[in-house]
Amino acid sequence: MAFRGRGRGRGGFGGGGFRAAKQEPFELYPELEDLGTAEYSNRNLQLIKWYSNLQKYWNSSPYYYEGGSERTRNVQKPDVERLSDKDLQVANSKPPLWHFIKLDIDHIPAELARGEKKEKRGIKRVRWNQESDLHKLDLFEKLEQKHQGEEGKENKENEDQEEDDEKNEEEAEEEFSDEGDYEQNEYFDDDEDDYNMGDDNDDEPFF
Amino acid sequence: MVSQYGIKLAAYLISSSYGDFCSKVCECLLSRGTLTLAQIIRFTELSRENVINCLRVLIHQNCVQAFSIQQEVAFGEAPKIVTQYMALFDNTIHKMRFPKFMQIVSEELGKDCLGIFEGLLQHGRLSLNQIIDRNMQTPDNSDVHAVRESFSRLLNARFVERCPAPEPFLAPPEEETPAKKRGRWTSLDLWDLIGLAPILHIAEAPKTIEQRALATASPMESIRFLMEIDTLRGTSEEKGMESHDIATLEEKWKQDFSDAELSSSGKKKEILWRVNFEEFVRRLRHKACIEYVRIRLSDQAGIVLSAILELTRSSETRLKTDKSASMSINDIYDEVIKKDGGLGMDLERVRASLVQLGCQIPTTGIDETYSIDLKNIIELAQNEEVESVVLKRYGREAYRIFRLLSKSGRLLETDKISDTTFVEKKDTLKILYKLWKDGYLHMEKVSVNGPKQTLFLLWEVDKESLWVRVLDEMYHAALNLRLRITYEQDQEKEILQLPTEKLVGELEKRYKRLRKVRIILESSLMNLDDALMLFHDF
Question: Which residue of A127, B130, B163, B482 pairs with B272 in a disulfide if CB–CB is 3.0 to 4.6 A?
Fold first, then answer.
């Protein structure tokens, strides 16, 4: 591809002259003058929206295969980990492929299939709507910064309701793990102090 | 084999939807043909795990079909069975048209069916349980029965079909006596020469191994649009069901299914469903024919044609049918009245439109039936498309010359061309050379040995190779459009992330420009896609 680009730049060379070719810079995306003034109609607006939604869904789904194993890839951890980063990771990690693709031998060629053991682990909840999760994430960031009302970009009307529903469900899920961490601290018994107290009492003479 | 830019376009569509790894695997299969897993790993230089996962995604999204075949081995060794993978180019390019399919479903069946359909487009394949499960998580979820109802409406309209077998086994071609085999193959070749496609029936052996694989993998017509047997008890929505036969049929089908559908572990396997692309391409083909007729002939001819096509749609067995099925004049008339604008038409007007469409009114007339030559309409549309390209690129005179050559269909000599089209001889020669250099014309030199040695140049339009070249150029254009759209979006991606209140002044101008540019480019792409289908799928 790059080679083709360089070739184009020396375009005038083969023209049958011994004059030096004019070096034109090669623009991959030349500016189109008429682009902003051409006529168009809004007939296809709905089609464009649908296509855009499909693309967004695929890009955020596990079908967008980014290599590596099926374990969730480690997101690059920032230097100072904040509590809000936990949200980041939960939303960014995609569900594994086998939530959606049946990997047994009935539905896939034998050499691609995987045993049934892993599936029996149980699919807690297959998330069919990842896009709304990601939208919700941007949303939270904006809420933090601007204290403004909810805005999507292109799917304003539709996404609001979806976001509210998803938000409640996600919070319910997350609360589980949060509780776990805090609970641990509550039940943590610091035995050492008790021991010291006991010893001190014994040393002091009894009056 | 797919043309060069076709492969590039398909690879780009996969990479923008499913990532670069999948795109590499897809491109490898498209350019090198059908391969085994080991060969794919070797050619793409990806790890085994990556290739396996990519193949899983691609098969699930209907872009790749696997089949197993007996490999020829040296004498004395046990025959080895290998799995091979083939890329499904058509299905990959269909991804560009998914919104058009969605529009058809939305117009015909409504919002509920559209929701299910969108899920099938997103995931490629889903079982009925997965569809129900997914529906529960949408904001406006309906209960299970409503979902099943919508799903069977999709099935009845044939928008959804059973998925093909994941790994059909292709038996090696039967042993035949040499003479008989030769006879069969020559007859097939002869058909190709004349230009007729042999009717691909599952019983006969199609030519290439890929065609055989697809034919073996696809479910039988009888079960292709059939839901599971359990639903037969409660509802009888499936086609062709007579209630008094249900009991006997049920038993018979249970028998057949128990052989075919039980998995190795003994439980009934879940049926996966996918979008039936053939039906949508058929509908778009009909739409294109009707539109062409409406513009070129008259509105009324368009109405009559759409009536006929609607009636004959369910009886079309192949995608590229040449002629529609025959319909009687009364059936046509009944359907025409139902359409918008058709109410005012009477039998005479209908007959007049039929004549316009190329039918002949039978003089002896108890049985007045008509069928429309669709292939002809498509060819006319294709010719017009290419002629308009020639007009735009090379000018009016070139357009006249090209039209003359394309209509005559045989070799013409330079002087004759010049006389017929009233173009100066030397201009004619220049134009002909230009067209020939760019591949639009085919030239032959004939030298006549007479008293004077003269060299004649003969020219003709070679439609076969020209159509391939035109199609490749269109793929190139579509690829460029897609790349440009992505580029424009990337340029302005900071603006896209701002909420609407912040877009004032300069930013607002940029946002508005981006929106306009996007609409123009995407609309152009949709129009180009219509032309693409005209040359490839119709």
Answer: B163
What crossing angle do the helices spanning B144-156 and B128-136 adopt, rounded to 10°?
130
> What does each C-alpha distance from B417 to B385, B402, B453, B466 come to in angstroms?
22, 10, 21, 20
Q: Nearest Cβ partner of A36 from B127, B484, B513?
A: B513
Closest CA to B432 of B445, B419, B417: B417
Task: Return the structure tokens found at B247.
Answer: 């009991």
Inspect the interface and report whether the beta carbons of B83 and A110 lie closer than 8 Å: yes
Owner of token pair 């396996």: B52
Band of pLDDT at residue B201, cut at 50, 70 and 90: very low
Helices (H), B124-261: 128-136, 144-156, 178-194, 209-217, 221-224, 230-234, 246-261
Of A21, A29, A35, A32, the residue nearest A5 (C-alpha):
A29
CB contact under 8 A, B263 and A104: yes
| CA atoms of B11 and B7, how far apart (whole Å) | 6
* Contact: A63, B60; criterion CB under 8 Å: yes
Q: Rg of the Cα trace of chain A?
A: 30
CB contact under 8 A, A44 and B523: yes
pLDDT-derived band at B490 (thresholds 50, 70, 90) equals: confident
pTM score, whole prediction? 0.74
CA-based nearest residue to B51, from B94, B82, B85? B85
Mutation choice for A interface testing from B60, B63, B263 by most A CBs within 10 A = B60
Per-residue pLDDT of B254-300, as tens digits, reads 544 444 444 445 556 788 999 999 999 999 999 999 999 999 888 88
**What's the gap in Å between the CA of B133 and the closest CA on chain A?**
9
CA B421 to chain centre: 37
| Percent above pLDDT 70 for chain B | 85
- Binary contact (B139, A63; C-beta < 8 A): no
B534: Cα within 13 Å, side-chain hemisphere:
26
How does the average pLDDT of chain B come out, rounded?
82
The amino acid occupying position A67 is G
Count of CB contacts below 8 A, A vs B? 153
> DSSP 3-state assignment of B444?
strand
Average pLDDT rounded to a whole number, residues B228-248: 46
Is B99 close to A36, i.e. CB distance below 8 A? no
pLDDT digits (tens, 9 = 90+) for A135-178: 555 555 555 555 544 444 444 444 444 444 444 444 444 434 44
- Choose among B70, B72, B5, B66: nearest CA to B34: B66
Amino acid found at B50: N
C-beta separation of B370 from B354 below 8 A: yes
Q: What mean pLDDT is predicted for residues B462-472?
A: 91
Write out the H or E segment, with its range, that includes residue B446: strand B442-449
pLDDT surpassing 80 at residue B488: yes
pLDDT band at B535 (very low <50, low <70, confident <90, very high): very high
B80/chain A closest Cα distance in angstroms = 14
If you write DSSP's letter for every residue of B14-75 in order, what string do you get?
HHHHH-HHHHHHHHHHHHH-SEEHHHHHHHH---HHHHHHHHHHHHHTTSEEEEEEEEP--T
Residue A165 and residue B119: Cβ atoms within 8 Å?
no
A107, closest residue in chain B (CA to CA): B166
Give CA separation, B364 vs A155, B327, B355, B360, B361, in Å.
Answer: 62, 16, 16, 12, 9
H or E segment and range at residue A206: none
- Indicate the Cα dihedral angle B111, B115, B117, B120, nearest 10°: 180
Give residue A145's pLDDT.
56
B415 near B425, Cβ under 8 Å?
Answer: yes
pLDDT digits (tens, 9 = 90+) for B37-75: 999 999 999 999 999 999 999 999 999 999 998 887 777
d(CA A174, CA A81): 18
